[in-house]
């Protein structure tokens, strides 16, 4: 008995650091209680920079555009040398965007959409090419129950979804690693892999002796699209066109490594801009995850499913009774419906009013949920309409490395 108590005590007092890798995202555990992810700590630990007001002003001056709501609200909150890309834009020098996605079964969830929505906005603002890597190979290597055929099939379905975000096919190349590997891309993969030792990979990604060698090699494959010479159909012989990589902060280890090898490869270092995770319906201690059906709202969900999930599962920052809520007010900072609204509702004034009204107890948690449901239903509904209009020919064009993409100007110096 005493022994069991001691054991429980030990577990409760145990503090676990937060653990953020490309494959695991967990907040710290303090005294047995799961904590929210500490993003400031990540910035320090990873050695990135926070996006501050000065940089946002710089962005606005360079582009003449009001920063996207993801920037205004600190959803994309951290970066590496974003200013270099702004400088190039001001000088009229080319650059491109690079992002990616590990294709999985079924549809993406609303959290997966963020980097892509942001990329679409950046592509419109900068009028630049975008390359999207679908890491069907990564999924095969990291998920033991997945066959190669399935992973590859998921990639093709993913193209349809990404296309539905509204990218311009003449400026967007989406590739499956399995399909595109070879030629210039594979040459860069090889060059990179020879520059990364096992001990570096182990230190960056936490690989273990028992991991198979496919995992250990994979980072060179995610690094290669950051170098323009992997895409000769877009950039010709050039090696001097850098990219900006919008990604979740968990992907940073790949690109720290990429930046390290850039110089030896005689390419420019990629710049990065990092997003926070969209919280799970259950709250901000974990991110929305496809493997947990009730934590996520999928892009294939019906209006009724969206309503049910938010009403039933979304963590509320409201009080337990309506009387108490009216008296003491709620907490929008932990209220998941309000948090989702900050990701999907562009109107700054309405966001402010919602937060204030909630704090004062004037807005109930039921009302907050109802607003969130309406906004997400509209977002998902519009997406589904666009997705239904994507044809097989569209998919083929996005995946064709030489589909007419008028970048002859880029290929010349
Ligand atoms: N590894 C990422 C995932 O599992 C996919 C990815 C590949 C990616 N290249 C990228 C993400 C570049 C962001 C930026 O989702």
Automatic annotation (TrEMBL):
Entries under InterPro entries matching the protein: aa-tRNA-synth_Ic (IPR002305), Rossmann-like_a/b/a_fold (IPR014729), Trp-tRNA-ligase (IPR002306)
UniProt subcellular location: Cytoplasm
GO BP term, example: tryptophanyl-tRNA aminoacylation
Keywords, comma-separated and alphabetical: Aminoacyl-tRNA synthetase, ATP-binding, Cytoplasm, Ligase, Nucleotide-binding, Protein biosynthesis
Enzyme Commission no: 6.1.1.2
GO cellular component entries: cytoplasm
Single GO MF descriptor: ATP binding
Keyword Cytoplasm attached: yes
Catalyzed reactions: tRNA(Trp) + L-tryptophan + ATP = L-tryptophyl-tRNA(Trp) + AMP + diphosphate + H(+)
Protein family: Belongs to the class-I aminoacyl-tRNA synthetase family.
Listed NCBIfam families: trpS
Protein's name according to its UniProt entry: Tryptophan--tRNA ligase, cytoplasmic
Source species of the chain: Linderina pennispora
């Amino acid at each position: 008995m005493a022994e069991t108590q001691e054991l429980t005590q030990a577990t409760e007092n145990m503090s676990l650091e937060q653990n953020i890798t490309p494959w695991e995202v967990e907040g710290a555990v303090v005294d047995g209680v799961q904590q929210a992810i500490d993003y400031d700590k990540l910035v320090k630990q990873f050695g990135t920079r926070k996006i501050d007001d000065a940089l946002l002003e710089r962005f606005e001056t360079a582009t003449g555009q009001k920063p996207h709501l993801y920037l205004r609200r600190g959803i994309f909150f951290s970066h590496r040398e974003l200013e270099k890309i702004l400088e190039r834009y001001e000088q009229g020098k080319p650059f491109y965007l690079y992002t990616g996605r590990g294709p999985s079964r079924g549809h993406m969830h609303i959290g997966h959409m963020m980097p892509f929505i942001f990329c679409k906005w950046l592509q419109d603002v900068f009028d630049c090419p975008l390359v999207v890597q679908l890491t069907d190979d990564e999924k095969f290597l990291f998920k033991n129950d997945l066959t190669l055929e399935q992973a590859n099939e998921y990639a093709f379905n993913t193209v349809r979804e990404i296309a539905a975000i509204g990218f311009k096919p003449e400026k967007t190349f989406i590739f499956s690693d399995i399909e595109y590997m070879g030629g210039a891309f594979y040459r860069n993969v090889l060059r990179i892999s020879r520059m990364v030792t096992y001990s570096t990979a182990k230190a960056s990604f936490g690989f273990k002796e028992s991991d198979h060698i496919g995992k250990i090699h994979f980072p060179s494959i995610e690094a290669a699209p950051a170098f323009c010479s992997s895409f000769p159909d877009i950039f010709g012989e050039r090696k001097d066109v850098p990219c900006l990589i919008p990604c979740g902060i968990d992907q940073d280890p790949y690109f720290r490594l990429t930046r390290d090898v850039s110089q030896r490869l005689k390419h420019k270092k990629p710049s990065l801009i990092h997003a926070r995770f969209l919280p799970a319906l259950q709250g901000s201690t974990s991110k929305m995850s496809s493997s947990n059906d009730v934590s996520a709202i999928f892009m294939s969900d019906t209006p009724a499913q969206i309503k049910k999930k938010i009403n039933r599962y979304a963590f509320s920052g409201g009080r337990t009774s309506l009387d108490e809520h009216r008296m003491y007010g709620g907490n929008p900072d932990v209220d998941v419906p309000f948090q989702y609204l900050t990701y999907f509702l562009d109107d700054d004034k309405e966001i402010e009013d919602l937060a204030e009204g909630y704090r004062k107890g004037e807005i109930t948690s039921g009302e907050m949920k109802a607003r969130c449901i309406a906004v997400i239903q509209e977002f998902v509904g519009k997406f589904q309409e666009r997705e239904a209009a994507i044809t097989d020919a569209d998919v083929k064009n996005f995946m064709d490395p030489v589909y007419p993409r008028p970048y002859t100007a880029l290929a010349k110096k």
